[in-house]
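Exercise 3.2. Students should predict the tertiary structure of the chain below and write it as structure tokens, then compare their answer with the key that follows.

Predict this chain's 3D structure.
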Amino acid sequence: MMAKIKLGILGGGEDSLIGILHRVAANMFDQFEIVGGIFDQHHDKSLKFGEKLKLDEKRIYKNLDELIAKENSLPEDQKMQVVSVLTPNFLHFPMAKQLLENGFNVICEKPLTTTYEEAKILNEIQQKKNTIFGVTYTYTGYPMIRQMKTMIANGEIGKVQKVDVQYYQGWINQLIHDKEKRSSTWRLDPEKSGISCCIGDIGTHAFNMAEYVTGMKVENILADLNYLYEDNPMDIDGTVLIRFTDKAKGVIRASQIATGEENSFSVQIYGDKGGLKWQQENPNYLYLMKEDQPLQVLKPGHGFLSEFSLEGTKLPPGHPEGIFDSMGNIYYGVAMAIKDQSKYDGAYPKLNDGLRGMSFIEKTVSSHKQGNVWINMKE
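Answer key:
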């Protein structure tokens, strides 16, 4: 039996939702063993949380310099092989950069960095070091999204001609209408979040998904963003028209002021022979629509689905799977890449996906600020 991959974690401490998601995902396929990390900026809190996870306190480090130095002093079969970066956005780049430079594989939350230039630097280092780098665009791990990707690649809906991806939330309403609150949250602070809130946070999921399931690249965009208040420097709503390299067109709609919405992420892809529709809040249903046939509803776990979809399915048909499973599939994809056993294109989002996400953020903001004009993604 092969030894488990030794995993370190930066961030994701006691009160972190994303931390729970990553820890469950890492344990899901018995591929990883969490051995230590830095769970909080306050070392005493980090130690306390490490104790809760029953980790060796010697591997709960005060800072990243200490982590790298001490882990690299361990025998190869004991040291951390990969480190997950779950910190606020502004820390992604310096932490990931330092880890890559010291030979660690990395799993990083999105957005990858706060600027496209930073993302390019990480890409260059990763290529030189030939390490594995996963970016957690979580929803790509859903079995029925992977089924959608396979069906489109196999031509089951024909040539793609219309893409409509929507990601609506309403949570920022609680902050944006209160001057003090919108001025104090890190999500609306460019120093900590980068130049975009809504597009940077959830719009990049939609952009990544559009490219992931279609297999096409967005070539041109035109954006119209909403900031609501003059003193708010960050977008909290936006619509982006997109044009792909092979002439298909589409729209990305993202909002954090869609009152009453929780996590409404929907993906609709239309070809000249049929259409596919999926919604994150009901992730077990993939709808196949054709003009000359009744509506078909595909669900995970059945033998007639693609091998890629089935590999990411852990329960029999009729047993709902969710976001933990989706993230777990991404961690499994990274594990297989580290072990050089990866079988599928798209098994986990790579650094280049994060790089394109950062380019999308900057091009979107630039399109809006230039007066809602078309911008080429290559410029």
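Discussion points: The longest strand covers residues 160-168. The mean pLDDT is 95.
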